[in-house]
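Dear colleague,

Following up on Tuesday's group meeting, I ran the structure prediction for the two-component complex that the binding team flagged. I've pasted the input sequences exactly as they went in, so you can double-check that nothing got truncated or mislabelled along the way. The structure tokens for the whole assembly follow below. Feel free to forward this to whoever is handling the docking comparison.

Inputs:
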Amino acid sequence: MAKDQSNQKSGFCITGKEVFEAFKTSIPIMVTFIVLGTGYGLLLEKHGYGPVWALVSGLVIFSGTVQYVSVGLLSAGSFVMAAVTALMISVRYIFLSISMIGRYKDEGKRKWYLFYALCDETYAMLSHDEVPEGVNVSGYRFLVTLFDQSSWVLGSFLGGWIGTLIRFDSTGIDFAMTALFLTVFIEQWMRSGSHIPAITGVLATLACRLLFGPDLFLIPSIVIILIVMTVMRKKIESGGESDA
Amino acid sequence: MPDIRHAIIIIAVMGAVTLATRILPVLIFGRGEKIPDFILYLGRVIPYTAMGLLLVYCLRNVSVTGGSHGLPELIALLAVALSYIFRRNTVLSVIIGTVLYMFLVQKVF
């Protein structure tokens, strides 16, 4: 934060006002992230990886869905499957990033942090251009991004820590991941014009699970999904994708 | 403690892929190059297919013929779906579903 910048409206500046407004904006996301992060931390701890793993994973990956899925792969998953699965889940970030290029173009080096820590929730808060009145936009964006990421990392560390501290029968805690994905699935279902992609995802994967058994079905599923999406493109696009 | 080296590589691989999806578009399209239509299309539809895939992935070890016949999963999924449809609150639905599922597998089935 250079002195000559702090007086300019377009520069980067953080005062109590930016902190307050960014915190206010982030509260709903922070609550969600702390709760879901705690679930992730507990799950990870149950699989034998303590709170430090949650911390490292939150900093290296920082994607709730990828991190939840990674838990099952940590001990013996194949690296190719890890890469393909991560790509499948993360491919949406390409579009979040692209649509933020214009907004972040004057952020200098801070830009790399903003893109690295861009997630669905932060995107939802920062991709409409309504910024609280009188705040420094750069400072505000940086803080919202930072608060969101911190609450996720903090929550997952907390979960791992609680897991080592309190011994309880955690059988079935894995279901937190299933429940989370189902809520996203329903949300997407309600928002999307064509349900073909969602249905293809379920049916192709189900068919491959029955055909290939519980260990090898992911990659064939992804191949089939890509083929179906390519072949059905016209039909899906005429169904009116409402999502941007 | 399981194989630490393997776990570190898995986190690194998944982290690198995730980071690439966030940073590469900026490096490639940061100067306003046109993004291929087909890529844009895939980016719109893949997230919808991915969530269906992940749901089945989560339930991959459920057996309909043996054990508890997938009943705890079915009941908990219904609770998640109904609570989410009526309240649209992710945290609430995840907590309801997980607590109910843990109760079902530990005490009932």
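Chain A touches chain B through 93 residues (CB under 8 Å).

Cheers,
M.
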